Amino acid sequence: MRPFELTAPTTVEDALAEPGTFLAGGTTLVDLMKLNVLTPQHVLDINALPLRGIDTGDGLRLGALERMSDIARHPGVYPAVSQALQQSASQQLRNMASIGGNLLQRTRCTYFRDVAMPCNRRVPGSGCPARSGANRMHAVLGTSDSCVATHASDVAVALVALDARVTLAGADGTRTVELADFYRLPGDTPEVENDLRPGELITEVVVPRLDWAANSTYVKVRDRQSYEFALCSAAVALEVRDSRVVDARVAVGGVATVPWRLNGVEEALRGAPVSQAAFEDAAARATEGAAPLSGNGFKLPLLRRTIVRALLELTEGSAA
């Protein structure tokens, strides 16, 4: 780790006035600094900023510095969000990591984290060795010739499924962005991972009220049950009446370069009967446009099965 200057502003205004890299829980930043992937000269510890609070009175409002563990166990948090947080990391990491920091965590691609290897996200134009190298964990959706790295966050998948938005504060004031629009596909500029402008800070995460989101779940498939990143995950919320799906929200992770909303699957589910056959038909649309690599073709059937499993969990006992 290279030397750096550390300051600790106590107001949002002071934090925005200083150029530097923000530090909250540090569970991503410190790791990458130790690897020399990130080498900031000035780090701002923002833990004293008044960016806390959990409000479930009308939807869900989360201060950006709320810890993952506190949100996960808070009554009234939508099940898909709570479950995604609980499965995100070890208890120790969940106690440290903030919700804002989690949404901004960098990819776990081994090439990105190894400064001896080329990586277009780290050094634009240097190449993407994952395309022809070790790519079992990499994306099959939203990829480009420049990057095939998966997005790492679990809770971002649940939040995208539930139409969450983030409030951003910067030198020019505050603005609100839909979380699904906040993340950027790699295209030819994989180093631009999101819509965060220089010096901006996430201050709040808001999930609109959705009464039937109480009937939601997060299913994560991984190599081991303990702390591990997703091979595939699915956040699903369903409204069911008279053994038919009235409405649905579906997003997936572990298979795409950003949290991936499946509008086609949602469309196929609306009006469908509650049955495994109907769920399998809808899930077949999940892999439209997929581009598997040499080592991750298994993710296509795994993705479809993960969605079906989530749907069956939510509708157990609801079939005609």
* Overall 3D shape: globular
Number of strands: 12
Give the rounded overall mean pLDDT. Answer: 95
**Could you say what the CATH topology of the domain at 212-315 is called?**
Enolase-like, domain 1
Distance between the termini: 60 Å
The count of helical stretches stands at 11
Q: Stretches where pLDDT falls below 50 for ≥5 residues?
A: none
Task: Kindly report the name of the CATH homologous superfamily of the domain at 212-315.
Answer: CO dehydrogenase flavoprotein, C-terminal domain
Query: If you compute it from the alpha carbons, what radius of gyration comes out, rounded to the nearest whole angstrom?
Result: 20 Å
The percentage of residues in β strands lies in 15-25%
The share of residues in helices is 10-25%
InterPro entries: CO_DH_flav_C, CO_DH_flav_C_dom_sf, Diverse_Substr_Oxidored, FAD-bd_PCMH, FAD-bd_PCMH-like_sf, FAD-bd_PCMH_sub1, FAD-bd_PCMH_sub2, Mopterin_DH_FAD-bd
Organism: Pseudonocardia cypriaca
Keywords: Oxidoreductase
Pfam families: CO_deh_flav_C, FAD_binding_5
Question: What is the secondary structure topology, with strand pairs?
Answer:
Elements: E1 5-7, H1 12-17, E2 21-23, H2 29-34, E3 42-45, E4 54-55, E5 60-63, H3 68-72, H4 79-86, H5 91-96, H6 99-103, H7 155-161, E6 165-170, E7 173-178, H8 179-182, E8 201-207, E9 216-221, E10 232-241, E11 244-253, E12 260-261, H9 263-269, H10 276-283, H11 299-315
Parallel strand pairs: 1-3, 2-3
Antiparallel strand pairs: 4-5, 5-8, 6-7, 6-8, 9-10, 10-11, 11-12
